[in-house]
Amino acid sequence: MTRVNKLLDRLQEWNQESMFITSKANVYYISNHYTDPHERLIGIFIDKLGEPLLILPAMEKDTAIASGWQGDILSYADHENPWELFYHYLNKSKRIPNTIGIEHDHFTIERFEQIKAFFPETTTNDVKEHLANLRVIKDEKEYHLLKQAANLADLGVEIGIKAIEEGKTELEILATIEYELKKQGIREMSFATMVLTGNKTAIPHGTPGLDTIKPGDLVLFDLGVVFEGYCSDITRTVAYKQINDQQKDIYQTVLSAQKAAISHAKLQQPIGSLDQVARKHITDKGYGEYFTHRLGHGIGIDVHEFPSMTSTNSLPLLPGMSFTIEPGIYIPEIGGVRIEDQVLMTDGGIELLTKYPKELQIL
Fold first, then answer.
1. What's the pLDDT score for residue 1?
2. Do 163 and 173 touch, CB atoms closer than 8 A?
3. Which pTM value belongs to this model?
């Protein structure tokens, strides 16, 4: 219950009376119970007046206990209203709060209306940033889980590149990647796997389909896995059979920009300066308008989490931060290149967690 105690300690610092945590990632972080409850309510209530409370469907109670949860548990059957049970639990123990913190980016209007119906005198406030700050520095255990997830992402790219053949479709290659990773014990990817070829590589978040591999195509892989609740993310771009001069120049520009951003990363450096360094390099080469997204994003239990690697983020880089560095150039009718690594900030600088080679490959 170390993280519960950590959160309890922070309540006073944040001047926060109570919290009701409901997002899948934060419930897992605090309870070590990893689940997707679908439409059912799962949440952790925490205050200074009593035991932390885990609310969850009755079918998950034994799993939560086996995961190590040592606080109170309020389980409910599908025919019961968990909000009503929650109200009676707090009322009986005289713990109905004046203010309760919720995650505004996760809480639905329906759930908000339930809070207001059962706790009409209780006000709510947003604790999303507090919880994000709690998770932003990874501990030693998290580091090892992220590293193993990254190793499997490397394997996914290796499998995909080996599967490239003329006439194969994007979805055929994608299926090969995910099938082979499932044989390694991976049950879920951290996001929808991308295998894009030809002009579709110029769409940063394109959708794989029945497009076939042809000589002269760029082929872009963007994928990651979930390993024991922690995500990985990698992008590599390769050329099939041949590459023209403009595509080669785009590739080398992206690679140089990524390396420049990695080299620039030092402790206490503003996060935004990494984006600025990469963006300036790409702009100076004449491709600035084609770099259409931020440099990267934090990664951990969620594949996209705090910190956001935007050019305006003034927060300093700190040891234990985990994030991606993924510049890209996307030109319609020519193709796109993105090169992405998952990294960890250490006292000595950046540690690359994804390690698949990124020098230009012409297959």
1. 60
2. yes
3. 0.95
